[in-house]
Structures are given as structure tokens and as C-alpha cells.
Amino acid sequence: MPLLLTQTAAFLSPKFDSCQIQGFIYNRLILSERALSCMARLKTAKVTAVNIKIQPDHNPEMYIRLLELLLKEKVIAPIQGHDRLMIAFSYPQEANKAILQGFIITFTDLDKDTTWINISDMIKVSADQIPEIPDNLKPNARIHAFIFDSVSHLMLLLLDKRSVNSICKGLQNLCSDQRIIEEFGSVDIETVKDIQYINDIIEMSNEQLNSLKITISLPNPEDLSETKMRIVERYKQAKIKKVEHNEKALPGGMALSDESRALLYISADNGSAVATGRRCGKNEKISTVAHPMQISFPYDSSKNSVYQEFGKNADAIFRDIQTQRKNDV
């Protein structure tokens, strides 16, 4: 079996033999052996995460069914412009059926009704000159490996050149498909933010905090510490789904209340925060939207594929995010 298939086989289910994997890789995901080098060298993999939330009631089986339905129905959703996203492959791990792993694919959906031009002579192309492209062939395909924990409803993503914010937008649009809404109701998807920028906002409040805006879609209460849970339950009792919390200071800055501090930490994987003020003697604006969590780890591509290293590091990353959720403020 060629090098790329050998390396990828460890990421895919052992129930798939080499022929099935070969068909999957070459025919469905258009991967090439050139994507991995035979030369021994140190490379760096980058992992980020999104939080997928079915509201108001949820359980691990529902999240597994959600991904199964997206795959079965071949739901395609827009990201931006003509860029599209879909779940291309998903399968439970043998060791832990609550963990799903697979691939998200992004591609360009050409608009066949748009105007074409011949750039050699700058003349508009007539309809009979436009090449016929089959509907099932899509250009600019990129593959994004994921590992999804149905218990914590966290999805880890192996980053390619596309940003996690665009992947998150595409996934949210997938879950806004009418077939998904009819089966599961409301599904919210948020990027997991780099906690350091939450801490930077808190540090800013010790010097001069001028404004603070926190936006959250309510988390599932069992994911939280007791302090955070009490705040969220109050919103839930009032039947509030999304919260936009705004504060503006009098001249000289404002203090950060205990509730605002708790909302900041809740927003780490359930929304976003933007603050302005002074930190380290300088005016500053901090936005967590621009800073999703990103974890990098080196690996020797001559010994392990990036998929194998991704799998090895996944459990530790899941634990870190869940610990962060449970930490009190």
C-alpha cells in the first residue's frame, strides 16, 4: 500500500481494508501521495476546536446521530461566496465509540450561469464555448481531519490553510439545514478561544477598563463550574438563549464585576468578548474573536503521519478544555 495510505490507515477505522481506504482517499477525497514527503524531517501540526451544542436537551447519542445525519444526507453548506463545506467521512473509534473521527471537506461550487471571459482576448465567452463540468466534480478541495467527543461535544480540527472561524461558520450553516432543524432543533457552534486573551482582559481591568462587550450562546449547564452554572440557570429560567452583555466606564475606567468575570470565562467556548482600555501603560483593544485556541506540536513525518500524531494528542487537548470549563472564577 502506498505511503500516504499506510499513514492514513491508522486514523481511519481498522474495519476498512487497504482497498477500501484506497478508494476513499483517491476517489472521494482526491488526496495525493505528494501531500506527504518521504524525507525524514520535523514538521508542526496545528489543532483548534469548536464547541457544538444541541439546545435545550442533549446527550452523546444525539451528537452521534447529528454527524451521522449530516453524512448520510450529504448536506452541503456555504462558507463564503462560492466556498462550500460538507462532512465527507465519519466513523467511531474502536476503543471508544463515543469518539468519532473523520474528515470535513471544503471546495468551490462553480456558478455555471455566471459570465465567463477569455482572458487572452478579453472577449466574453458564449454559452456553447463554456466547458461542461459534471455536477459531482468540485475544484479547490481541501481536507480537514477532525476528532469529535460526543460527551463533551467538542470537535478538534487539524488546521489546514482555512481558518477555524470559516470552518465554524460552515458547520453552523450545515446545522441550519431544515433537515437538521427538524430532527434536532437549535444547534449552536462556537470556536474555542485562546484563554490567554480572556486573562488579558482581566489584567486590563486592573489598570483601566473602558468598555466590555461579551456575547454568548448559552452553554449546557453540566459543562460548567457551580458559579458559572448559577448565572446560566438564571438566564435559562428567563428563557434567554443568547446574551449580549455591554458595559461602558465613566472616565478613569471601571471595575470588573464577579458576574462579568464569570461571563468572560463562559465566552471562552460559548461566544466572544471585546474590551478596550489600557494595559501595560498602552491603549489597547482585545478581541477574542481574532484569537481562537491553537495548539501546535512537532512530529517526525518519517515515523508518524500527522493523523497519527493528531490522534495521540487528542485526549490531552479534550481534558484541558474540559478542565477550563469546570474551573471556578
Please tell me about this protein's structure.
There is one protein chain. The chain has 329 residues and is an alpha+beta fold. The chain has 2 domains: 3-192 and 293-305, no CATH class; 195-290, no CATH class. The chain is 31% helix and 30% strand. The protein has 9 helices and 14 strands. It has helices spanning 3-9, 18-28, 60-72, 164-174, 178-184, 195-205, 226-237, 258-266, 306-326, and strands spanning 42-55, 77-80, 83-92, 99-108, 117-118, 123-124, 142-149, 154-158, 186-191, 208-217, 242-248, 271-279, 282-287, 295-300. Strands 1, 2, 3, 4, 7, 8, 9 and 14 form an 8-stranded antiparallel sheet that branches. Strands 11-10-12-13 form a 4-stranded antiparallel sheet. A two-stranded antiparallel sheet has the order 5-6. Helix 1 (3-9) crosses helix 2 (18-28). The longest helix is centred in the C-terminal third of the chain and has 21 residues, at 306-326. The model is unreliable at 1-9 and 14-39 (pLDDT under 50).
- How much β-strand is present in the residues? 25-35%
C-alpha geometry: globular
Number of domains: 2
* Count of DSSP strands: 14
Elements, N to C (H/E):
HHEHEEEEEEEHHEHEHEHEEEH
Classify the secondary structure makeup into a structural class: alpha+beta
Q: Tell me about the largest β-sheet.
A: 8 strands, antiparallel
In short:
The chain is of the alpha+beta class and 329 residues long. It has helices spanning 3-9, 18-28, 60-72, 164-174, 178-184, 195-205, 226-237, 258-266, 306-326, and strands at 42-55, 77-80, 83-92, 99-108, 117-118, 123-124, 142-149, 154-158, 186-191, 208-217, 242-248, 271-279, 282-287, 295-300.
